[in-house]
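Query structure, 260 tokens:
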């Protein structure tokens, strides 16, 4: 199977940071699979996702995403950007705008520049947006303002916006850490199911090994900026997972963020 993303011997330190956030990382994300990134706070999960999203510069090593090589001194070429979608933990929605408008924003990267500037959606854009709303179970919320929605509904909007972009690679940074366990399962089921239906690859980070096991076909464990294991879910070892979080300190708690 071809790789949706490939990283070879990559190291990266955030500007001004004393220690590298990623150290000698090599991995390959198989095309069409759902893959989970596990690891305590500060392990480097967010940094790895930002790298694959083309937002980091100044790294050492080799990176290619969906067959396009990235370079450490420049942003990825514009035409390949809409192929990667990102779902943020904090949703990153326009709160005072409607659900429909937010999901339509996912189409902007697919529109010709002039149409994107004027926000004029084509009939095809609307068809894709309506399908994304329906797949995420929020068609009936289309005209509601985002600031009137619950956390679970907001995350559905964020996923619908990402799907409207028609990405081939979906990156999600702790997409369920703000949700209760039942909602968290629903949202991960939605995210990985929608990716599968579209033949897209999904890579999501999580602090919850049980959810990673349920929804990922492959699990990558990280600690201190390094990959500790990278295995099919069926081969995930309980002890290896426990070791990942052992003595990780108070920063490893679910939902806690590293100090930036
Ligand atoms: N903007 C930044 N500037 C300096 N250091 C940073 C920055 N962002 C992250 N770091 C550091 O890089 C390391 C990796 O952080 P990262 O956020 O990638 O970890 P994480 O595994 O995603 O953690 P969490 O689970 O808390 O989100 C940490 O030591 C963190 O403090």
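Result returned for the query:
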């Amino acid at each position: 199977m071809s790789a949706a993303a490939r990283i070879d011997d990559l190291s990266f330190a955030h500007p001004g940071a004393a220690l590298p956030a990623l150290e000698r990382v090599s991995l390959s994300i198989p095309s069409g699979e759902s893959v989970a990134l596990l690891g305590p706070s500060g392990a480097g999960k967010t940094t790895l996702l930002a790298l694959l999203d083309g937002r980091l510069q100044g790294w050492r090593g080799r990176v290619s995403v969906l067959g396009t090589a990235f370079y450490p001194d420049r942003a990825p070429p514009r035409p390949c950007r809409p192929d990667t979608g990102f779902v943020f933990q904090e949703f990153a929605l326009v709160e005072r705008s409607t659900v429909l408008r937010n999901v339509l924003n996912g189409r902007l990267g697919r529109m010709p520049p002039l149409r994107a500037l004027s926000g004029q959606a084509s009939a095809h854009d609307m068809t894709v947006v309506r399908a994304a709303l329906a797949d995420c179970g929020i068609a009936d919320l289309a005209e509601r303002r985002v600031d009137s929605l619950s956390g679970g509904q907001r995350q559905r909007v964020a996923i619908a916006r990402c799907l409207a972009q028609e990405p081939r690679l979906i990156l999600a940074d702790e997409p369920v850490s703000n949700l209760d366990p039942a909602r968290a399962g629903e949202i991960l089921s939605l995210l990985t199911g929608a990716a599968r239906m579209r033949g897209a690859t999904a890579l999501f980070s999580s602090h919850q090994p049980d959810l990673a096991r349920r929804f990922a076909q492959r699990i990558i464990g990280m600690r201190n900026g390094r990959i500790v294991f990278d295995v099919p879910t069926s081969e995930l070892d309980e002890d290896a997972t426990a070791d990942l979080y052992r003595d990780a300190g108070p920063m490893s708690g679910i939902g806690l963020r590293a100090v930036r």
